[in-house]
Amino acid sequence: MVDASATDRAVEAFSLLGDDTRLAILRTLWDAEDPLSFGDLRERVGVRDSGRFNYHLKKLDERFVRKTDEGYELRFAGRRVIGALLEGTYDQADDAEPIPVDGPCLECGAALTYRYEDEIASVSCDEGHDMLKTGVPPGIFAGRDDETLPRVFERYIRRQSEWTKSGFCPNCSGPTSAQVGESELWDRTDYTVVTFTCERCGQTLHSDVAAALLDHPDLVAFAREHGVGVRETPIWELTLLHDAETTVTTDPFRAAVTFRLDGDERTLVVDEAFSVVDVT
Ligand SMILES: [Zn+2]
Ligand SMILES: [Zn+2]
């Protein structure tokens, strides 16, 4: 969790950024290929008054910007600020028109629709079964054609999930832990999900256990043997996910997920912490 001194440091850092000239300095240093001298930087930012410019630059010094022998350049924190601005993290997005998605709901087989409302993207059926749902910064979608948005979103959420499974929180980069269990979802009490929780910020990511195993090397290889590219195919078109079957046993807890393709099958068994303990 965030301690008081970290909060103080963050408040101070954010307050330093609350100024157009300072953001322009960061953006200019980002765009520059090499470090810039004081004069070059001031000219590119477009501030005539050198005293005023120096005042703003000093505010960024040490935390966001560093002065080297070659001139001024961005520190890591400065690059992260520009990355978040470009990604649109602090923008408010326009809600998009719903777009039909070419695949059935895993739960009920109904048609799926992509939506983006209040910076939350989702792929759901009309019965309210969310196949995919998460917050997405608007910059992810900027400049993309409408018909590609569901696929862009799907790739985004899969990368976020891979990052989480590798042990990093996509929100704060803190360490994540996994817990597999049966959960109440969509009027069912026997849904087997894996919940990843960030130990630092508490953000959680829930996934169907079969979907969470999609990028496991043994499953990727099994699908490849049958001509299916798991990573390249949108999740709603992966029939092996639709046909997957999960069986849970206790003492010790094990969830066995069987995937089927062309009459052939592969079973991956995970323990409570989502470690694969057996493949058959
Ligand atoms: Zn449904
Ligand atoms: Zn976190």
TrEMBL record:
**InterPro entries in the cross-refs:** ArsR-like_HTH, DUF7347, DUF7351, HTH_ArsR_DNA-bd_dom, WH-like_DNA-bd_sf, WH_DNA-bd_sf
Residues in HTH arsR-type domain copies: 2-97
Gene Ontology molecular function: DNA binding; DNA-binding transcription factor activity
Does the entry feature the keyword DNA-binding, yes or no? yes
Q: Which keywords has UniProt assigned to this entry?
A: DNA-binding
Q: Which domain of life is it from?
A: Archaea
What Pfam families is this protein classified in?
DUF7347 (PF24038), DUF7351 (PF24042)
SUPFAM superfamilies found in the cross-reference section: Winged helix' DNA-binding domain
Protein name, UniProt field? DNA-binding transcriptional regulator, ArsR family
